Amino acid sequence: MEHIGKRKDEALFDGVYCCLGFWCSFATAVYFDQSFSVFVLGMFTTVTATTAARNVHRRSSLYKAGLWIAGVNILFACIIAIFNQPSLIILAEQLISALVSAALATILTLLFIPLFEKCFRITTDITLLELSDMGHPLLQKMAIQAPGTYHHSLMVATLAQNAAETIGANSLMVRVCAYYHDIGKMAKPEFFSENIQSGNNPHDDLSPHMSAIVIISHVKEGLALAKRHKLPTPILDAIEQHHGNGLIHYFYNKAKELLYIGKSKNMKRRVNQHFSSSGKKQLRIQLETDSISVEETGSELIALLKELDEIKLHKPKHNRVYKSSFIKFGLSLAENKNDYQVLRLVHASSEDEYLTTFKNLNRARSILFHYAEKYSLCLQLLSLDKKEGGCGLYQKQQCLGACVGEEPAESYNKRVQQLINDVEFPHTDMVIVDGGRNPEEQSVILIENKKLVGFGYINLSHQITHPQALKNIIYPMKDTREARHIIKSHLRKHKTVKVIPLNSA
């Protein structure tokens, strides 16, 4: 709806009035032997009437407009008399004609305004003032049947009027539209919060979909009621459009209570598994599911991170993984009395930081055994062997003898540092580049100060050089120990993933 500045209705009214005035003046001039003065008088009268009758808020204002017309007619008659010097009788006749024409113009305007409104679909301020009367049958009915809605409409009208005045809109139009915008609530007033007097909410006994239907139906009901009472088009538009195309958020969210979040490379197959399985959990999901939404990530790593983030945020009832921390063990670094660096597996606490973390002990031991063989490290100094004497790898000649003091601590510690570099992020500031959602893009995950910043998508032609250049396209993610664990585990498993160090300066 557009009623800002010079309203469409006002402009149309002015145009119609000026057009009629022109042709009436022209016809009158022809009738009086093509008198140019008669034509000029008619046009002056038209302009005066149009200007004086603009923004008429009372019928009495029309009488004031009639006096203005009379004044213009008398002034024009006097000017003509100066040039033509008529007799007093003719001058008196002209003055009387001026007054009579002004009176007739006022009477005809009062008579024809309803006709003009009907023919040209114009809503004048006079009509709006009549509709703003609190004694209007619809407003009286709303005050009795839906008192909360009635009070709400009055408050909205006051706020809307002040806003309209501030921006130069038609405040009267806005106020009247606000009075009637919720008349449809009278059909089922007890289903709207402002009318609920007791603590019983009828929506508690309805499904979210039914509640949404009841709520939004007040628009349709209001439109039908307004048409029956022959309310003008601007008010019909206000009733129809005041909710726009938005959702009923409360009921939408209620209906969309998340049941389960998961990731998959083949989403169609995964969903089919959920709805074809006869497992207890799957049966509950099948019964409770209202709809399914899918978000493409283009990257397994981003899918894992988003899965973690969404589960932590929404805590879906059928997700057990990630609801609480899945980090059970951490790898800590210390030095023994002989200056050898010792790596210890410990039960992870929420307060301490670790070189890396693990979901379970078996997985942790397996990874450390792998690194012990890779870097010829001592199992005893990795807390994997507690036997007296040399460790198991020393017996196989794969350990260089740190456990029995044969290898200098300095050389051993260098290889320990290689292990640390493998389990830590390879760079303090870096970008992990992976596949995108389509062939023209790639995904990026930004790590800054060894902490997760977020993820985003860039065009293949985009050059990655500086963290600040990426932050404009990055969706922020919460940095957690679990998120860093997922990233480190992914990098260990997928050696081909592209990692780009960044200049943080």
Radius of gyration: 41 Å
Class by alpha and beta content? alpha+beta
Q: Report the end-to-end length measured between terminal Cα atoms.
A: 52 Å
Order of helices and strands: HHHHHHHHHHHHHHEEEHHHEEEHEHE
Low-confidence stretches: 1-7
The number of distinct β-strands equals 8
DSSP strand content? 5-15%
Spatially, the strands of the biggest sheet line up as 7-6-5-4-8
- Summed up, the helix count is 19
Helix content: 40-55%
How many structurally independent domains?
Answer: 4
Mean pLDDT: 78
> The biggest beta sheet, please?
5 strands, antiparallel
Shape descriptor: elongated
Quaternary structure annotation: single chain
What does this structure look like?
This protein is α+β, with helices and mostly antiparallel strands and 505 residues long. It has four domains: 115 residues, no CATH class; 127 residues, no CATH class; 95 residues, no CATH class; 72 residues. It contains 19 helices and eight strands. A five-stranded antiparallel β-sheet has the order 7-6-5-4-8, with no helix packed on it. A three-stranded antiparallel β-sheet has the order 2-1-3. A hairpin with a 5-residue loop joins strand 1 and strand 2. Helix 6 crosses helix 7, helix 7 runs antiparallel to helix 8 and helix 9 runs antiparallel to helix 11. It is elongated, with a radius of gyration of 41 Å. The N terminus is likely disordered.
